Amino acid sequence: MLAEWVADGFTEWDMWSCDPRRFTDYTDEAYCIAKGKEVYGHEYAMHFPHHEWPAGRPKKTSPLYGRLKELGAQFGANNGWERANWFAQPSDDTSEAATQTWDRDGPWEVRIREECEAVRDRVGVLELPGFSRFTISGEGAAEWLDGLIAGALPKVDRMTLGYFPDRRGRVVTEMSIIRHDDNLFSLITAASAQWHDRELLRDALPLDGSIELWDDTVDTDCLIVTGPKSHELLGAISEANLNLPWLSRQVGRVAGKHVLLLRVNFAGELVWEIHADNADMAEIYEAVLGAGAKPFGMYALDRLRLEKGYRAWKRDLSSDYTLLESGLHRFIRLSKPVDFPGKAALKAEFQRGSARSFVTLLVDAGAEDAPYMSTLWHDGKIVGETTSGGWAYRVNASIALAMVRADLAVPGTVLEVEIYGERRRAVVHADRPLWDPENERLRV
């Protein structure tokens, strides 16, 4: 793998687990010593799916960290940033021993259900500190960015998802692209992708300095306000046009504070994302809580996005798979006049057909849901792997997202998924989201 990395600039298999860019500026000497001891001391221990490793933490905390702790937040780390995974009640067992289980029915499960139901029926609020954020500007910035992504750029005051392929047509990264002006863009991407994506952009910059790149990651915080009552809630505490369409952006005020509002989310409900300066976020958060939002965490968000078939970077989206295999057809413009990395490879794949296809599976899972990279079987042969899995409360089923041999990606096909050594029945779902397949709830 190292030889391929040096010689070709990429590897046959996705090697994120060995990529030094997955560690950023939070990994100082004290952190590395603490983590080194922890890793060595648990080398042969069980690594349970919801157990969080505590050594060296916290390293990066948001303006809301103390307030979230008061509300019962149980934290996980993302690129060093502490994010709430779920919110415990005083009676819940939050000891380390309680998290050491393979079953979904840990101490968090009743709370995850409550959080998902609040988003489904009313309105929830999730803080997402540490989004990797970049600003691109300069004459010709639009043409330059268009040459890096497979799809089309958004119009001014709109946004889209941009997928960056390598020359094989495989997924390198995914970024939200927000267009503020003809040649002024914000790019928002996963917290853990900060150094990875910054390097990708930096290395592609023109040598003449005509286009500038800034890393704005640490200056801004984000709230997700989502659910059927979210517009009603924001209408009471904001100065903004809440009737703008899906994938819009605008500058406004919430609780009297200057904010950027984006109409997009990962939960599949009516939503606005609130992006604001760190200094203003505590006051905004209290206003959102006071207007009736229920705090929810990353575990609930992960369950909600599964029902919509939304992909997560370095789980469902990786350089193991091409954009076409990943089901990202609507984000590819093979006919656009601009060349982009992998265009020829994707054209050839489109003509011959893909070897694998991305699918949603309904799993007879029992007490444990399919973890990342569970083997899929059909007629005694290995035919693919899961990329995500979990119990979804809006459809009341265990779901897995998966990559499977293309001829088996037919609705109703029965497969087997191996969950901790036991094979369980899994059925390929139709090529539509399980929840709100027409996107009616988020476009109101």
Write the layout of secondary structure elements.
Blueprint: H1 2-8, H2 29-41, H3 65-70, E1 73-78, E2 81-87, H4 109-121, E3 124-127, E4 132-137, H5 141-146, E5 159-165, E6 171-181, E7 184-189, H6 194-204, E8 212-215, E9 220-226, H7 230-237, E10 238-239, E11 249-254, E12 257-262, E13 271-277, H8 278-290, E14 294-295, H9 298-308, H10 343-352, E15 356-363, E16 375-378, E17 381-392, E18 397-405, E19 414-419, E20 422-428
Parallel strand pairs: 3-14
Antiparallel strand pairs: 1-2, 3-9, 4-7, 4-8, 5-6, 6-7, 9-13, 10-11, 11-12, 12-13, 15-18, 15-20, 16-17, 16-19, 17-18, 19-20
Helix pairs in contact: 4-9
Commentary on this structure:
It is a single chain. The chain is built from 10 helices and 20 strands. With 444 residues, it is an alpha+beta fold. Among the domains are: 19-107, no CATH class; 219-292, Gyrase A, domain 2; 309-428, Aminomethyltransferase beta-barrel domains (Elongation Factor Tu (Ef-tu), domain 3), CATH 2.40.30. It is globular, with a radius of gyration of 22 Å. The termini are far apart.
